Amino acid sequence: MTLVTAHTVRVHGAPCPTLVLAADRPGAFPSQQAELTGLLERVRRRLAADGVLKFALVTPSADAAHDLDYTFAQYLPGAPGRFDLRAGCGHSLLASVAALGHRGPVRVRMLNTGERAVCSADPAGRLGARFVHDPPLPVRRLLTTGRPVDLLRADGRPYPVSLVTLGNPYVFLDAARLQLACPEALFGAGAPLLRRLERLRRAAARLLGLHPCGALPKVAVVGAFGPGRLAVRAVTVPGWHPGIALTGAACLAAACAVEGTVPHALATSAGAAPDALCLDTPGGTVRATAATGTAPGGGQMLYGAGVEHKRATVLARHPELGPALWRTYATA
């Protein structure tokens, strides 16, 4: 019989814990979306996990080039369908590695986003994740629409934004366009700004052909308020992110390497380098890196981007859930 284990894990900087479900064989979880979301809903109710909005399903990889296969599910309170299976989550990826006790390097294939990552631990036990591209990817391929800047309308006004994809699709907006002139103003802004950003996020979703009530795209406001660093505030489900998503930090670092984008202009004005990007967030400082190089024929290439030094804590193990979970799925 397939063995399924369940752990609740919190990674420092994440908005909530992740429930990690790990099976001991490849392909152990349902492949059909309806079956998978039904399984996750039964698990959520069984654990009364109202405060857990992130779910990770991991198995040994069916591909010899990877160690783990990983699927992320974002629970959307009150939304149709309840679970969004299109998004990625770097914090939940690290939660999965922590739940399994791996120190790395662990090569992970993210089934619902098509991304690949390598996770590892430093001597202090802190985890890091790096989204990798082998062969390297032309940085302009990160532009979701192929354009470094697009105009989105909200409240009757156009806003220049950059739509960039790495880990997740992101909408990056210059804080100056919102009359936010310092980190305190950005981090202290309340519900009116949150509502405006949600309207911009929905406009971007329609542009990209995504459901406006889903988890994608993500949106973040970026400011260049001091030398050598950027400030960023991001939106998650269902409100402000306490810091920034791991995918958001990695995506922002990569976006800073794409000439013409809003993040590139801000990083250039601040003298901030994408290979060692210092990000001020409401939850503290995050350091992200993007490794780029020049192709033989010219043009910038991305080798990878990520974040390190994240602490993960296993909050609970649910030994009673494993056998019950599998029996419920197998007989459904």
Structure overview:
- With 332 residues, the protein is an alpha+beta fold.
- 24% of the residues lie in helices and 38% in strands.
- The protein is built from seven helices and 17 strands.
- It has helices at residues 33-46, 90-100, 183-188, 191-208, 246-255, 262-270, 321-331; strands spanning 4-11, 18-23, 54-60, 68-75, 83-84, 106-110, 116-121, 127-138, 150-154, 157-166, 168-174, 218-226, 229-235, 277-281, 284-294, 300-310, 312-317.
- The chain has a 17-stranded mixed beta sheet that branches.
- α1 (33-46) runs antiparallel to α7.
- The longest helix is centred in the middle third of the chain and has 18 residues, at 191-208.
- The chain is globular and about 55 Å long.
- The relative contact order is 0.17.
- The model has no long low-confidence stretch (mean pLDDT 92).
- Let me know the number of strands: 17
* Low-confidence region ranges: none
Number of helices: 7
- How far apart the termini lie comes to 16 Å
Mean pLDDT: 92
Structural class: alpha+beta
Q: Which geometry do the CA atoms define?
A: globular
Outline of this structure?
By secondary structure, the chain is of the alpha+beta class. The protein has helices at residues 33-46, 90-100, 183-188, 191-208, 246-255, 262-270, 321-331, and strands spanning 4-11, 18-23, 54-60, 68-75, 83-84, 106-110, 116-121, 127-138, 150-154, 157-166, 168-174, 218-226, 229-235, 277-281, 284-294, 300-310, 312-317. Helix content is 24%, strand content 38%.
